[in-house]
Amino acid sequence: MIERETQSVTSVSEGIGHLALDYSAETIGASCIVQADCFEWLARIPCSSIHAVVTDPPYGVKEYELHQLHKRSTGHGGVWRIPPSFDGHTRSPLPRFTALNQKERDLLRDFFTEWAALVVRALRPGGHVIIASNSFLSQLVFSSLVDGGLEFRGELIRLVQTLRGGDRPKNYEEEFTGVCSMPRGCYEPWGILRKPLPRGMTVGECLRTFHTGGLRRPSGDRPFCDVIISSRTPQRERSIANHPSLKPQAFLRQVVQAVLPLGHGVVADPFMGSGSTIAACEALGILGVGVERHHEYYEIGRRAIPRLASLRVDREANILQDDLLSHPEQLGLPL
C-alpha cells in the first residue's frame, strides 16, 4: 500500500502547470487557475498530486444558481435574505440555508459525499482539507465528507460576529419582541479533515514520505490553534474581488500556511470563487491551484489575485489561545 502510494506521488519540483490539463487556465505568479468543473477536474488529475485543500464551497444546491443570483441582485427573495440595517449601515445579502427542504438537504449530502471521494483520490495520504461551513449545516456537511472517505480531525473556529440569526420571528416581530428565531452567529466553523494515513504508518513516517500528515506551527514554540479571531472581510478587499462569500486575507493566510506542515507543497481550492485562497498562497510563496466553473468569477479571480496577494494585512488574529481565554474582551463581542 505505502509503496504504491509513493510511486504515484507527483514531485513538487515539476511545478503545477500539469494540473491544468487541457482546460482554459492561466499562470499567476507560481500558482495556476483553471476554469473547469471541480468534480471533473478532481477525477482527471493524477492521484496523490495535491498536498492540501482549503476551500469555501457554495454548498452545491441552490445559492449560486443563476436564477438565485438574479433574485439576489434584484432583492426579490429566493435563498438570499437581506439582513436588517442598523448602526446606519446597509448589510450585504446572506444565503438563507434554513430555506432548504429535505430533498435539497439530501442533494447536499450526496454532493459532499461524492466530492470527498474525489478529493481523497487527488490528495496525498495525510493531506488535510480545511473547508468553510456554517453552524446550521456543518454537522450534515462534515458527516458527508466522512462518508466520502475523509477522516474528521476537528473544527477550526473563525471567531467573527456575523449577521446570521438573531432576528425576531418573521411577521411576528412586534408580537414577540423578546424572542429571536436563532442565535446571532458569532463564529464560523471550518471543518478540519484528513486523508487517512496508510495502515500502520505514523504521522512522522507520513511527513517523511509524503510531506503531509500534520499541521504547521506558526512558530517553533507555538502550536496551530483551532480558534482564530477574525474581522469581517475589509472593504478594500471587497472592492478588489466582488464575491458574496469573500473571506479576509488575514484569516486565509494563516490557514494556508497551516495545511503544509513542512512549508512546501500544492494547495488546491476547488471552489475558487474570486481567488482569495490562491491570493493567500501567492502572498506566502506557496504553490496554489484554483478551480472555478463560472466564467464570471474566474475572470474576477484572474484580475483580483495579484492585487489581493500584494496587500499587507493585519495579523491581529495571531493571539495565543491562553491569551484568548485570559482576555475575552479581545473578541470584540458582548461578554
Short description:
The protein has 335 residues and is of the alpha/beta class.
Keywords:
335 residues; alpha/beta; Rossmann fold; 9-stranded mixed β-sheet; disordered N terminus
**pLDDT averaged residue by residue:** 84
Q: Please tell me the CATH architecture by its name.
A: 3-Layer(aba) Sandwich
Poorly predicted regions:
1-13, 79-95, 316-322
Q: At the first level of CATH, what is the class? A: Alpha Beta
Helix content: 25-40%
Give the distance, in angstroms, between the N- and C-terminal Cα atoms.
52 Å
Q: Quick one: CATH superfamily?
A: Vaccinia Virus protein VP39
| Amount of beta strand | 15-25%
Class from secondary-structure proportions: alpha/beta
Could you say what the CATH topology is called? Answer: Rossmann fold
Integer tally of domains: 1
Major beta sheet summary: 9 strands, mixed
User: What string gives the helices and strands in order?
Assistant: HEEHEHEEHEHEEHEHHEHEHH
Number of strands: 11
Over the alpha carbons, how many angstroms does the gyration radius reach? 20 Å
Principal-axis shape equals globular
The largest beta-sheet arranges its strands as 1-2-11-10-3-6-8-7-9
SS summary, helix count: 11
